[in-house]
Amino acid sequence: MKLIIATLLTASTAAFAPQSASRASTSLNVDFNVESTALPGKFGPATLDGSLAGDAGFDPVGFSTAPFAKFFDAENEDSMTDIQWLREAELAHGRIAQLAVLGFIVPPVFGTLPGNDWTGVDAYSVTNPIEALGNVPEFAIFQIVVFLGWVELNRVQLIGEQGSSRIPGDIKLGTNDGWNPFNLDYSPEELRVKQTQEIKHCRLL
Fold first, then answer.
1. CB–CB of 91/99 below 8 Å?
2. Domain assignment of residue 51, given as a range
């Protein structure tokens, strides 16, 4: 009986013992040789060469070495690189997250537009963002989906047209060759700072 109890205690203790696994077994079998500025040590593969804003040399899983360009744009020889495809996705999702945060903060703090909307449903008076979704008319949701689809279609077309020369996340806003109502004209150094600020905000959310 004592032997059985001792065996059970040993087994239960072993369940909480740290497992000795190499980093390669939990990654994409990547050689981590880039020093990280986020944490002490080498946590980045060679694909993190510092060319993109916000690159801190931190990719402990090795996602930046996966063949995203071949998967999404196999027929285009002038496609973006794998790391550029990842940055494109990171910016797209990060911008959506930033807009969502604004949608949660602005109505409760600043209120909404006065009166009923054209559908006759008093949807604009609901300031709780969770309750508001259930009060928005279906046709209004349809309009939002169509608009987002149009924006995404234009972004995908830009990716195909610009190829390897594309700046990830560029949607022609605030540029000299796009829609620039405030006449923004950043130097390369200033643009790098703005890009770093944006990607940090995206990652925060």
1. no
2. 24-66
